[in-house]
Amino acid sequence: MNEKIRVLMVDDEEQFRETTKKLLNRRGFETILAGSAEQALEKLKEGANVIIMDIKMPGMDGHEALEKIKKRSPEVPVIMLTGHGAESSAKEALAQGAFDYLSKPCDMELLATKISEAYRLGFKKGSMKEQNILNAMIPLEEYTSLDEDKTVLDALVRLRESFASKMSTSKIMETGHRSILVLNKDGNLKGILAIRDLLEAIMPAYLSAPKPSMADSIQYSPMFWKGMFSIQVKELGKKKITEIMSPPPLGIAGDSNLMEAAYLMVCKNVRRLAVFKADRLVGLIREQDLFFAMNEILK
Questions:
Q1: Are 43 and 67 contacting, i.e. CB atoms less than 8 angstroms apart?
Q2: pLDDT band for position 91 (50/70/90)?
Q3: Phi/psi of residue 87, each to 5°?
Q4: Contacts of 101 by beta carbon, 8 Å cutoff, 6+ apart
Q5: pTM for this structure?
Q6: Where along the chain do its domains lie?
Q7: What is the CATH number of domain 138-292?
Q8: Is the dihedral of CA 144, 147, 151, 152 positive or negative?
């Protein structure tokens, strides 16, 4: 994200507000909180770029608040949040002038994408301006990384932490990145360690070696596999991550179009690309980031 987007988060549930603020701020947004529609109208003067507002709130509901916001600050896009089974209410909000709506539980990657899109388009209907890779990527500081001299055991611990540290409630979902960036002492990208690399590394060499045809029945018997997984994993933990990691992902310029990223992923059969700005690594763009961008366009 090139500049901080100020987001006004309006919801009557305190835990949801606070958790969402923490997650949005982690992604580089500046978040203002309001516990009611009435409070949100007061905080309009703080200059929000995008408003996220629950439809169902005590007192003034989201529909009434949206109507007032559109009169006072018509240029500010509003993203409505709604519970399951309330699609008709959400569509009514679109007719009132809402930028879009999301259902709870709300995926944070999708919400972040939606906020950035609303800010860029400035709610100009019919605009086909597309975001670039810098806006859709995961920033480098948010991605799990590890020094090249660490062991696979260290990597397993960090990967597990990347999943465990993600906040999850009934209304918010986050997932780990499923890979670790391996950096050298100068902070340059040396390689990447993905879960797939771990799975390939625990395969004993003899499984892929030529064998007599009569051995097929032995290989796939229950006794053949027994204990193999645990033994291989324990041996793997002692190795250096540089022994099993994959090469650095293909690179792409941050100001490139998303279609360029999609083209590279398909043609080169890769799931992620390293994003550079002025020859400096600034983040990664993954296939799921392109998925969220596709979802945004179709909506």
A1: no
A2: confident
A3: -65, -35
A4: 55, 79, 80, 81, 82, 90, 91, 93, 94
A5: 0.55
A6: 6-127, 138-292
A7: 3.10.580.10
A8: positive
